[in-house]
Every structure is written in structure tokens, then in C-alpha cells.
Amino acid sequence: MPQMKHLWILLSVWIALPVSAQKSYYSRLEKDTLTIGNSLIERKFIWNQGNLITYSLTDKTSGHCWINRSPSPDFQVSRDVSHMTNPSYTSGEIAETAIHPAFLQTVVTFSVGELDVRRVFCMYDNCPAIACDTYLKGTTDALLDGKATNLADRKNIEFAEDMKSRQVTAILDQFKPDGFHWQTRIVEFYDVTDWNNNLVFETRIIPYRKNSYKGNLLFAHNMENDKGFFFLKEAPSSSVQLAYNGYDFTTDFNHFVVTGLGMNEKDIRKDEWRKTYGCVIGVYSGSELDQLTALRSYQKNIRKLLPGRDEMVMMNTWGDRSQDSKVNEKFSLIEVERAAQLGMTHFQIDDGWQVGKSPNSALAKGSFRNIWDNPDYWKPDPEKYPNGLHPIVRRGKELGVEICLWFNPSVQDDYADWQKDAQAMIDLYNEYGIRTFKIDGLSIPTKQSEINLHRLFDKVLEETNDAVVFNLDATAGRRGGYHMFNEYGNIFLENRYTDWGNYYPYWTLRNLWQLSRYVPAEKPQIEFLNNWRNGDKYNDTFAPGHYSFEYLFAITLAGQPLAWFEGSGLPEEALALRRQIDLYKEIQHDFHTGTILPIGEEPSGRSWTGFQSVHPDRGYLIFYREDHPETTARVDTWLPAHTRVRCTPILGHGKPLEQTTGRNGSLEIELPTANTYVLYRYEIHRNHK
Predict the structure, then answer these.
(1) CA–CA distance from 238 to each of 139, 173, 649 (Å)?
(2) How far apart, in whole angstroms, are the C-alpha atoms of residue 158 and residue 150?
């Protein structure tokens, strides 16, 4: 390794983490080289007085090692990158909790001028990715949110000086391997689903001269050796990020850069560490399945999926648009009974259970501001619930239905009352055992608001021994999106209503199908509605009334199913769904612990489409025949080609089958009726290739 002049290391000897035999991760600083790795990935850095410069990135599965060709530090907030002081290094194992498995944490700090930088690398065992969170403290006169130059304002290729790259913004991470033949995919996400019904946009490029792109994910695949790496920017969707400079990634031939800290120079404090957006780098070899599996391996480590805490088939009555006009003790008890008859695991009382009135109240227009002017705001309304929530919780326990609540943190002054909000949920947990809260009305316009929301969620988890799950609403406002706050629970994806004529089953299926390639499908709550209501609001082929109630439930199976209706409003025939729900609950957790990916065609209302949950040598397949004219179709899957597969039906209308897969893992599937489905458990017979 090259020697760095004037190297000053606070520690006179290198430190290596003594780990137990079953853990493969390691971290060590030896002379001028920091090495972080595990059984699948290794990243070596030139120490550079703590301001690390990647030397190499190794995919241990294939043995391939990329040498970094950029001489610049990986992280940059200043043009002055040569005068570092106060470098330090520590490493240690962070113990397993109910939220996350054990992981290796490596902390590197240094100072540049009056700015202190702390970079915290996190690595899970048997995961081909390394995450890095960066914290800043002190002061800087650098501008951290510079804008990109419009390509049309640059001179032509004959002006060599104009072709030179100019740093215009802070850099979270960067990597410059050899080669020009990088097929690159950038993925941009949209939430704010009250306004957006197209949530995933892909840009596929061959990198040329310096260009910038929006997105949370960048995949770089080298066509010469069929290997690659990815960057994941752990931040809200691009359109709502803080201190946003207009892009997230910059490519320049073989140079890949992640930009945008989520804070500007005014957000930095002299006496408080403040976290930028996070960045993850991962490696893979081979196919797109290998690529997506590597990404998912990291995502599944952020929060454990525990069957008794995180898995749910929830009913929330807000989908029938009564708002809070019906919510009271009698109504809630009726709904709990109905939820139990359907086989629901959770019943959530939405807005209206509390003393305070929100702006969404049908009874009295309230406010989300200055909530704590009323110290009883988050107590059960004594007129609606004269006995508190005890009768509903007690009846729920008798019926095996967990009671959940809606909650809206007090938004004013960047959530300055976060401690009061946290205590309100802690009190509800302590008194009633409520441990699942739908978090609505969030707005994150500043760094301080983001910090205080983290404090709120962390406080609740700390005081409840990590028992609480937050359903984080993604329907409106500046919120966390799909790649931030993932450690706290799942995602309430969208509001869709037959009353407004904006619930179409294939739209919902399409949103989950598109997200599931890049976001764990088990994270979003996916709604199904009472399709006996509001038939007069529709007059087209894809109206909800043209589908069976069972099919509407079936499109939610890859996610967390959300019954978005009043159970008491269902006809008696709807209760026959209990059989399918009970069968689904038997395999729900096993289905969700696999790597769930989309298969077939994109849902369009007339497609053959579905999902696959991939386990080693086994898994699950869901096939949907939408309103397609053919009773059979060959559907591409993620199964290996020319492999014998046995499929056993669990739900739906398919027959048992045993086939040898074709090109692209295709299987021939038969569903005799349009708008039907089948859920299979499959096994791969390797010896019959």
C-alpha cells in the first residue's frame, strides 16, 4: 500500500476487533491502511489522516477486486483536503437487540479546519454491503448545497478546460474503478401518494462525461466481467430531501459520486453532532437477481421482522370515509368482533379516538398545531370512550385481535414537543398495551425537525423495550419515504377510496409490484377495500366491483395486508374470506422472510403478473391473471432456467404442477378465469437439471 507523508495516527498500534468464531466481520487499522470486511465484501482505505481514500473494493464471492483510481477523499465538504488534524479510529461490535442483529461498527473521526467529521461504518455478518453514516460538528464556510451546471451552458468538446470536472457540492461517497463499459441504472422514488400514483422511475445509461441524476439507488454493472456494485442513498425521496441541490448521483465515465448531505452549512452546530444522509455501498457478481439479493440482504438487516410484532393483517375503518363520525366504544367493539370473524390480527382505531380534534375531523375542525395547549389531547375521548380503551383492548385480547391507534405528532417549532408526544405513546403502551401506532401528518422541512422525530421514535422504543411498531404514513408532506426511518416499522403506503372513485385494484398491485424490486415488499401496508360499496361511482372495465373480494385481498399478500373498510359494512358473504386469511397467516412470515421480487409483466389490468419469494432451493410464487384473454401463459420468474420445480397450491385457483423451467425461469401457468390468482409453495429439484 502507498505510504502517506506526515501520517499522524492517535493509536500507536492497530486495533482489530476480537469477534466470536461465528462472526466473519473485521476491522483493522495497520500503518496507513484501514480494512473493513466480512466473508462477502472488503473495502480498503488509505488512512490519509482519517480523511479516508478508498484503495480497493473486493467482492469475496467472486474474488474480484476493483482498485479505486480517484486520488480524492471519499467524503468531501471542503476543497481543502490536505490539512487534516485529530484523526482517530475505534471499532467494536454492537450487540443484537429486538430491532437489529449484531453488527460491527467502525468509527473514524478527523478535523478539517474548524469542522469535525465523524464517519461511522456499519457491517452485518454475511451481508455484501457496508453502510456509512456521517456526522458533522463545528463550523465551515464551505457551501454545501451547490447547484449542478446545465450541460447546455458548457462549451463544446474542443474546449479542454471546460471539460474538466468541477466540484459543486458536498460528496457523501465516491468510487472510480477501471473500465468504461458500465451499464448503469439509477432509480428515483416518489411518495406523497395522495398526489402520486407512479412511484418508481428508472434511468438506464452508459456513463459518458459528467452528468447528474436524481434517485436513491445507483447500480453499476461492468459488462466486461459481469460484476458490479451499488450505492444506496439513505434519504427521503429526491423531491423532498433537505438542502437539495437537484441531484443525488454524478457519473463521469467510470467515476460514480453520491452527493447531497441533507443539510447545509447553517445546519451545523458547534457543540452537537449532526447526521447527514447515509450511504451504503454493496457488491455482487452475476445476474440481476444477484444484484437485487445483495441490496435486499442489507435492507432486511435494518429492522428485524418479528412474527408477533411486525407481521399483521390489519383492519382500519377509515377507508369507508366515515372519518371520526362513528368512532366510539360501541362502534369499536362491533368492529373488533367483525375483525375477529374475518381473521384479522390487528384492529386500528384511526383519527377520532382522542380528546383533541384534528383537521380531518368530520365533527369539529381542529388543528395539528399547538396540540399541547390541551394536555388531554392524546387521552381517549371520555364522551366516546367513557371507560377508556379498556373494554376494546380486553375484548380484542379475548378474540385474538391486537388494538392499534392513530397518532399525529405535534408539528409546530420542528417538533419541539417531541418528548410530550413520546410520553403520550408510552403512556398508552403502559396503560393499554398499545404497541402499533399509525404516524400521520408528518412534515420534515428542516434538519431540526428530522432530528427531533428521530428522538421521538427512539424514546418510545427505549421506554417500551423495542415493542412498538410505527406505521409511517407516506401519503402527503415531506416525510421519510422508502429509505429513511426504516428501523421504526412499516409504511402506510396510500389512501385510496371507492367514495372518490380512485381505488382500482390493478393500480394498487402495480405500485407494490414496482416498489418490490427495490424496497422490501413486506414493508408497505397494502390496502383492499369493500367493493360492494359505491358501484355507482364507476363505469369502466377495471372497477372494483368486477373483482372478487378474495382477489382484492390476494393483491396485498406480498405486503402487509390492510383491510381498509368498516367490517360492519360488509355483507355476510364477505366473511368467507376468513378461510383464505387463516391459510395466509400460516405462511405469511416465511413468505416475507424470503427475497420478494416482481415476476411476469407489469400490472396493467390485462397482464399476467405476480411475485416470487426466493429462499434457497424453495420459496413461493403468486401468479395473477388479470383481465387477460388467454387461460394459460408462460410467466418469467427468478427461478434458474432448465430446472425441475414442484409447485403446491396454497391459496387461489391453480392446480398442482411440476415443470422444467424455460428461458428466464419461465413456467406455464393456467388460470381458467380472468381476475384470479394462485399462491404456490415451490421446491427446486437440483438433481433433475
Answers:
(1) 26, 17, 41
(2) 18
